[in-house]
């Protein structure tokens, strides 16, 4: 890790024992980075969705024992939180410049430089998936692979833009009110887990609702404004030659976005996993559905579960994409390149 008088680290008391939170000052504001694992191992960088942090967006996945034997065995995890999204964050000052999505992507490379990291594996959810995809397009030599959950790649549609503007105005004038929380929960989760009149909310939704109450509304507002002004990345996706694994819940409001993104990526390096009866946040709603596809994805980099006698300090130099990654039968899941899916539906 590089020395810097502009950066400070503090011990972390939540999410997992042995973790540490670093507050890294960048040219576009301070970023909270929670680090878990042996920093001599290859790096896995995560970025959460709007109004979430690493606890509320990735805890379901990383708390699975199978994920621990696969991910924590092979990687040191660097959870990057959007500015002001960490637990206990203070409101962003009125004099602080509002970052654009380009600024947020540039923050990531400053974080990597602070920790002395080279090329990294990336995992992001929805808005976080967009930021990491933009980062991969701007800094191709710093990204080994992308694991994206319900990703965005196009500019907002008029429907999304209008909905975001409604949320933005409510956040600015009323804070994290009931309407904003309901809109966010619909963004994250399927109707099955959100419950209804006769069916109660599941524990994961209740926990997320409580965590939303702790968010600073002005900080969320800034991230939402940045995402509502995002440009379309579609044309540059074909030039992205790092391997990409995309998950999307079939009930996600961003399902069509994930299909569009998969159609624009080079089919030799990408695959799509559609998770049935699930919303956008597969990492929390159905994390076990991610484990087998991720395991096959990582075998192309020479990474395996802890039970296998393979060194976790792999140089991570991937060869061409393995045939197993594109084989639905071997995955035991609905895994298909997008053109295959369309031809089946016609």
Automatic annotation (TrEMBL):
Domain of life: Eukaryota
Protein's UniProt name: N-MYC downregulated-like 2
Family membership: Belongs to the NDRG family.
Species for this entry: Hibiscus trionum
Keyword annotations of the record: Membrane, Transmembrane, Transmembrane helix
Pfam families recorded: Ndr (PF03096)
Keyword Transmembrane: yes
The organism's taxonomic lineage, starting at the top: Eukaryota, Viridiplantae, Streptophyta, Embryophyta, Tracheophyta
Annotated signal sequence range: none
Segments crossing the lipid bilayer: 114-136
Gene3D superfamilies: alpha/beta hydrolase
